[in-house]
């Protein structure tokens, strides 16, 4: 095992895939000479050159389209959005083109492309740089949606995403780039898409968390164990689409209680979908209504205290667990 | 080339006929009047070259090599269609024929076509990309984003603006601050040319120049090919925004008649030759109708195939 930051784990995944397959290339704003806005692509331009690591003009729709066309014609682009907030400009290419191409061409043209970058809030970057967009992209058949929460997951899932023959939405979190974790050193370590991971085992309440809320949920679980001797199981689906609902439902059948913690807004969220699916298949196993912690229904404010109040927190998750456990 | 144009015309006339009979659903955008563009531009290509276009794609698909049977069956929503009945009028595709689709978002294919050319250059495959779109797409951001990157990165792509003067019911005059589309490429220092879209040989010559530039110098070109669509934007469009006189004026320079006359004047085409072309086109269209009628609807098991999530 090697102790790596999530940033470096992603960087390793990119480096290994660039080495493995000459059709893989990285394209986006500041990915090459600048070493990446968040340094995820650090050193890759120097190592692989301008053909494989390509700086673009600020033209999100345009370079997303170049990626889609290049993928249709046989390449495997990794398209970086400096943040997923900017992907909204490119959403026509992601949604109307990449997602639908295989189906509307009757199975002839697949689009093996990864769109990646940081999703959700950062540190006081305010309304237009803080949106968590996974619910939107999860609503389009044809797209896979991946959200790692540890260094190992980041590396293993990104490698699988690059090898997948479908368009993959790969969502990182700026707040988490510096978080360290053990990453297996085995050659060609990958993690299959669509398999959840139980980040902490427990018996009394299931917390489903993803991306930034995973470390929050783990802290909350620790706190609840200490203060109330309640044992929480933390399930990280890791990929939103395909969703490993079996692992989630299996956990709920064991604990009979469910809290969902997510960074996105609550209305029509991924958490809402998970709550529905659990209700649909395990209604009789629930001993309390499902509780959800999300970002408040407002654009992200700048002020530090308001930003903190808007986002999920350890305390909010603790309160939600107490509620479903009737404590 | 004359046969391709005649076939395109007769095919689209048949589409209009069977659409009115309810055999074809959804949107159906016909190409009548613009045949010289697809024919002239695409017959200058190698088979391995790539083509992408908008939703007005039936004739482009056929000129690129997709069988008329497969195009009409697609319009019928039958399993024998070129995308198994999943795409319909706007989404003809054929990997075998390097035909990257009809696309339904105005201008979307300009960016995708740019990416196809990007891949050709990356792989050093020698392929060029023809990217067709209407004049209304020029007002979309993707047109400008694409031209900028194509010239910046020297991509082997030919942008062919089929200027038929109307974006649905809105004339170019009411939608664009300038009239001269070809010159927009000057803003990106890209080669550009204005072409008479009623003259198939002029289209072919301009396409050949652009293809040579793309293939030998890896440089893009914007061609503005001025043409006219005789029918409405789609089959549901009665066309109240323009006069019969205007349509008649353009029909005086019908691309098929012009080409036929020039061939006859040059004494390379006799009356009987043209009759034979018409007969062959009619026969091909009838064969396509028979195929489309007889092809079964896609089985329900197709509903969830070709989508892998």
Q: What is the strand and helix layout of this fold?
A:
The complex is a heterodimer of chains A (327) and B (309).
Chain A (H helix, E strand, L loop, with lengths): L1 E4 H15 L3 E5 L15 H5 L4 E3 L4 H13 L3 E5 L3 H21 L9 E5 L15 H5 L5 E3 L4 H13 L4 E5 L7 E4 L13 E4 L4 E5 L3 H16 L3 E5 L2 E3 L3 H11 L2 E8 L4 H13 L8 E5 L8 H7 L3 H11 L3
Helix pairs in contact in A: 1-6, 3-4, 7-11, 8-9
Chain B lengths: L1 H19 L14 H8 L7 E5 L3 H7 L3 H8 L23 E5 L4 H16 L5 E6 L6 H12 L4 E7 L2 E2 L2 E2 H4 L15 E6 L3 H18 L3 E6 L17 H8 L3 H11 L5 H24 L15
Parallel strand pairs in B: 1-2, 1-3, 3-4, 4-8, 7-8
Antiparallel strand pairs in B: 5-6
Helix pairs in contact in B: 1-3, 1-11, 2-3, 2-8, 4-11, 5-6
Let me know the average pLDDT of chain A. Answer: 98
Number of strands of chain A: 14
Order of helices and strands of chain A: EHEHEHEHEHEHEEEEHEEHEHEHH
Gross geometry of chain B: globular
End-to-end separation of chain A in angstroms reads: 40 Å
């Amino acid at each position: 095992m090697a102790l790596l930051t999530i940033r470096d784990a992603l960087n390793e995944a990119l480096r290994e895939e660039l080495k493995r397959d000459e059709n893989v290339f990285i394209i986006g704003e500041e990915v090459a000479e600048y070493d990446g806005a968040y340094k995820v692509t650090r050193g890759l331009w120097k190592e692989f050159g301008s053909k494989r690591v390509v700086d673009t003009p600020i033209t999100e729709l345009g370079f997303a389209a170049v990626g889609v066309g290049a993928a249709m014609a046989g390449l495997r682009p990794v398209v970086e959005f400096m943040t997923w907030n900017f992907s909204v400009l490119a959403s026509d290419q992601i949604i109307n083109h990449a997602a639908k191409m295989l189906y509307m061409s009757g199975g002839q043209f697949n689009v093996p492309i990864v769109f990646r970058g940081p999703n959700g809030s950062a540190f006081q970057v305010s309304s237009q740089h803080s949106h968590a967009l996974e619910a939107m992209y999860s609503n389009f058949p044809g797209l896979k949606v991946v959200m790692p929460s540890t260094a190992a997951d980041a590396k293993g899932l990104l490698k699988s995403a690059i090898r997948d023959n479908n368009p993959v939405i790969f969502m990182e979190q700026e707040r988490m780039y510096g978080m360290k974790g053990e990453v297996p050193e085995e050659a060609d370590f990958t993690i299959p898409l669509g398999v959840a991971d139980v980040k902490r085992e427990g018996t009394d309440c299931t917390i489903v968390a993803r991306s930034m809320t995973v470390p929050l949920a783990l802290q909350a679980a620790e706190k609840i164990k200490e203060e109330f001797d309640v044992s929480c199981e933390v399930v990280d689906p890791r990929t939103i689409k395909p969703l490993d609902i079996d692992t989630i439902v299996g956990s709920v059948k064991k604990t009979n209680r469910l809290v969902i913690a997510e960074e996105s807004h609550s209305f029509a969220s991924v958490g809402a979908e998970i709550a529905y699916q659990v209700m649909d298949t395990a209604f009789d196993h629930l001993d309390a209504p499902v509780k959800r912690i999300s970002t408040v229904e407002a654009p992200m404010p700048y002020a530090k205290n308001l930003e903190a109040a808007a986002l999920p927190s350890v305390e909010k998750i603790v309160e939600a667990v107490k509620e479903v456990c009737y404590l | 080339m004359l046969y391709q144009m005649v076939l395109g015309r007769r095919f689209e006339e048949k589409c209009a006929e069977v659409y009115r009979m309810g055999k074809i659903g959804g949107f159906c955008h016909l190409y009548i009047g613009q045949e010289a563009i697809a024919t002239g531009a695409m017959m200058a290509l190698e088979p391995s070259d790539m083509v992408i276009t908008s939703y007005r794609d039936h004739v482009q698909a056929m000129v690129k090599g997709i069988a008329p049977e497969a195009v009409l069956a697609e319009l019928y929503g039958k399993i024998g269609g070129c995308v198994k009945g999943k795409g319909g009028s706007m989404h003809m595709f054929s990997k075998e024929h390097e035909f990257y689709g009809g696309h339904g978002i105005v201008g979307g294919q300009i960016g995708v076509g740019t990416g196809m050319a990007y891949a050709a250059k990356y792989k050093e495959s020698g392929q060029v990309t023809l990217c067709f779109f209407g004049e209304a797409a020029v007002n979309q951001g993707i047109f400008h984003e694409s031209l900028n990157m194509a010239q910046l990165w020297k991509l082997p792509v030919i942008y062919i603006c089929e200027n038929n003067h109307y974006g649905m019911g809105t004339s170019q005059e009411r939608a664009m601050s300038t009239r001269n589309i070809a010159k927009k490429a000057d803003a990106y220092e890209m080669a550009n040319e204005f072409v008479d879209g009623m003259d198939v040989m002029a289209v072919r010559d301009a396409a050949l120049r652009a293809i040579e530039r793309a293939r030998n110098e890896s440089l893009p070109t914007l061609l503005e090919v001025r043409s006219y669509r005789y029918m409405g934007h789609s089959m549901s469009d009665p066309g109240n925004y323009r006069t019969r006189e205007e349509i008649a004026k353009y029909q005086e320079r019908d691309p098929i008649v012009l080409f036929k006359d020039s061939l006859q004047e040059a004494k390379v085409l006799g009356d009987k030759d043209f009759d034979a072309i018409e007969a062959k086109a009619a026969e091909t269209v009838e064969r396509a109708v028979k195929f489309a009628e007889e092809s079964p609807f896609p089985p329900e098991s197709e509903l969830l195939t070709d989508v892998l999530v």
